[in-house]
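If you are new to this repository, start here. Below is one unmodified record pulled from the training split, so you can see the exact layout before writing a loader.
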Amino acid sequence: MADYRVETVRTGYRRWTARNERGAEVLMAAADDDGAQPSFTPVELLLAAMGGCGGLVIDRTARAVDHEELRIVVESVSGPEDDGRIGRVRVSYEFDLPEGNPKAAEVFARGVRLTHEKFCTVSRTVEHGARVEAVLPDGTIGFEG
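And here is the target side for that same chain:
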């Protein structure tokens, strides 16, 4: 499995830019900050990562099924009882199964199962959690959870 590094830099009040080592950038801001649009919120990026990871896995695990028109919609639902966390995530795989391939539904369903059971690092991390360690400027641990 690969290790990743992303740098996030403040570019203004409640505005941030994330950059990877390959030079890609994504803008983040509060959804209600009109001056920072278009941008993603951090939660939207998490959902986008789940959709993108799922799509990359489906490209491999269900390649026997033509899925050129596949759209993956990831939605979050939260309530006061979720205490500032996402309460539920729904990942919808939307496309028309190709005609003339009686095994298409079975192959695609297997690909979706493998995405969430085995291969999508992002989805599996969200589903099972990850250890988080926050390191302060002096190198000490400010939070572990």
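Two things worth knowing about this chain: The mean pLDDT is 94. The radius of gyration is 18 Å.
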